[in-house]
Specification:
The chain is α/β, with parallel strands linked by helices. It has one domain (2-136): 3-Layer(aba) Sandwich (Rossmann fold). 47% of the residues lie in helices and 22% in strands. It contains six helices and five strands, in the order βαβααβαβααβ. A five-stranded parallel beta sheet has the order 3-2-1-4-5, with helices on both faces.
């Protein structure tokens, strides 16, 4: 059995990570966490950026820092992968690659306004996943 957790550094992402850890323990499952650097909302800034700041690198650093803080409560450190792109697409693609039995995601990510404009990652994952999806609500 294999669980894939989509993690974005948000409080909802932390709740999903904790729940996936519990499930992995109960089911004796292998646990993978995917961190997806997504900078689409910054494209206009990047195009007009004379300093050529690597926005993906900044996002990856943010995700890595958030993940490092979050793993202190996990019972077993999972396999972690970093991808660049649209989060739902990358989560689904990774779940297909590794043959996941479940995908675990938080109910909301970092931005309410982004969700209104672009659609929620959890919603997109639920409708495109190759396996069952567990959407974790933050308590």
């Amino acid at each position: 059995m294999l669980l894939v957790t989509g993690y974005d550094g948000s409080d909802h992402g932390n709740a999903a990570l904790a729940r996936a850890d519990e499930l992995a323990q109960c089911l004796g499952a292998e646990h993978h966490v995917i961190l997806v650097a997504h900078v689409q909302s910054y494209q206009w800034t990047a195009m007009s950026n004379p300093y050529q700041i690597d926005l993906y690198a900044l996002e990856e650093e943010h995700l890595s820092d958030a993940y490092e803080k979050a793993i202190s409560s996990l019972s077993v450190e999972p396999t972690v992968v970093m991808r660049r792109g649209e989060p739902a697409h990358e989560i689904i693609a990774y779940a297909e690659e590794v043959g996941a039995d479940f995908i675990v995601v938080g109910s909301r990510g970092r931005g309410g306004v982004k969700s209104l404009l672009l659609g929620s990652t959890s919603h997109s994952v639920m409708h495109g996943a190759p396996c069952d999806v567990i959407v974790v609500r933050q308590k």
